[in-house]
From TrEMBL:
Name used for this protein in its record: Uncharacterized protein
Species in which this protein is naturally found: Yaniella flava
Amino acid sequence: MTSTGIRYETGPTIAVAVADKTAAWNDGHFIGDEEIVTFAEHMAAGEIELNVFNQVITASYEDPLGALAAMAGYWPGRCIVTEAPDEVAEAIQIEPHLGYVNTEEGEDVINEELEDITADSEVSS
């Protein structure tokens, strides 16, 4: 088989690594480790909302950020993004000074109120 040398333009590629598994998405298709791909396909098909990267993102076959969420949802907090366009990388980053905790009542507290809560907390050793 000979190559024609024709290159086809594709959309952005999103790639992740989770433990010893890898997967990627490009133009609506997931490839890679069977477990991650199966999970991502189910999430994207159902357009499931997933809590990943400290935000809720709807899993999708069509949207790069949604595709990343579908794969990252396999093991939230353990997913490493190995390839993504700048706009996707920027969308999942949070500023380092932001904090996220729950109050005793279970309410989410972000940033400004965090200093008040941590200042009142006792550190036990």
